Amino acid sequence: MSRAFVKEDTNAPPDLPDLPISPHPNFVTPRGLALLQSALAARQADLAALRARADRLDKLPEAAAERDIRYLSARLASAIAVDPAQHDGSEVAFGLLVTVADEDGDETTYQITGEDEADPAQGRIAPQSPLARALIGAAIGDTVTWRRPSGAVILEVIRIEQPTDPADDPRA
């Protein structure tokens, strides 16, 4: 009989590819570190609940949880915690809040955070982003050029501040 027609073990968990790990240094804010730890604990609890199910025929959710746990564990193991309070606020640095004004005078506040914490809709940008690269090292009153695919934008640094809220809300 041909092996093509033999049913293999259907209870084996599917092989899910691992989530890609960034090649960049894994700088994290205190908030970002707490978020990674919380996410890992949540996925570990999810996996325990999945394994406790009476009907465990579908192994995909377990495999996904195991993959996520591997990813989060790797991100935590490589985390380089940077406390924004270490910076004096004289220039834009990782973890600080920076308020910029565009050519029309519209102000926006950003925080440069770790990749896992970055959320542009919330004003949190990764250090590898073109905007963060343009801002890092700038002082109040400096102008920087943010090179975007749709064209360059000139921004003036208006304020540099320490985050005061544990949630590091960049006043979105």
Automatic annotation (TrEMBL):
<dbReference type="GO" id="GO:0032784">
    <property type="term" value="P:regulation of DNA-templated transcription elongation"/>
</dbReference>
<dbReference type="GO" id="GO:0003677">
    <property type="term" value="F:DNA binding"/>
</dbReference>
<keyword id="KW-0648">Protein biosynthesis</keyword>
<dbReference type="GO" id="GO:0070063">
    <property type="term" value="F:RNA polymerase binding"/>
</dbReference>
<dbReference type="GO" id="GO:0003746">
    <property type="term" value="F:translation elongation factor activity"/>
</dbReference>
<dbReference type="Pfam" id="PF01272">
    <property type="entry name" value="GreA_GreB"/>
</dbReference>
<feature type="compositionally biased region" description="Basic and acidic residues">
    <location>
        <begin position="1"/>
        <end position="10"/>
    </location>
</feature>
<feature type="domain" description="Transcription elongation factor GreA/GreB C-terminal">
    <location>
        <begin position="90"/>
        <end position="162"/>
    </location>
</feature>
<dbReference type="InterPro" id="IPR023459">
    <property type="entry name" value="Tscrpt_elong_fac_GreA/B_fam"/>
</dbReference>
<dbReference type="InterPro" id="IPR001437">
    <property type="entry name" value="Tscrpt_elong_fac_GreA/B_C"/>
</dbReference>
<feature type="region of interest" description="Disordered">
    <location>
        <begin position="1"/>
        <end position="24"/>
    </location>
</feature>
<dbReference type="GO" id="GO:0006354">
    <property type="term" value="P:DNA-templated transcription elongation"/>
</dbReference>
<keyword id="KW-0251">Elongation factor</keyword>
<feature type="compositionally biased region" description="Pro residues">
    <location>
        <begin position="14"/>
        <end position="23"/>
    </location>
</feature>
<dbReference type="InterPro" id="IPR036953">
    <property type="entry name" value="GreA/GreB_C_sf"/>
</dbReference>
<protein>
    <submittedName>
        <fullName>Transcription elongation factor</fullName>
    </submittedName>
</protein>
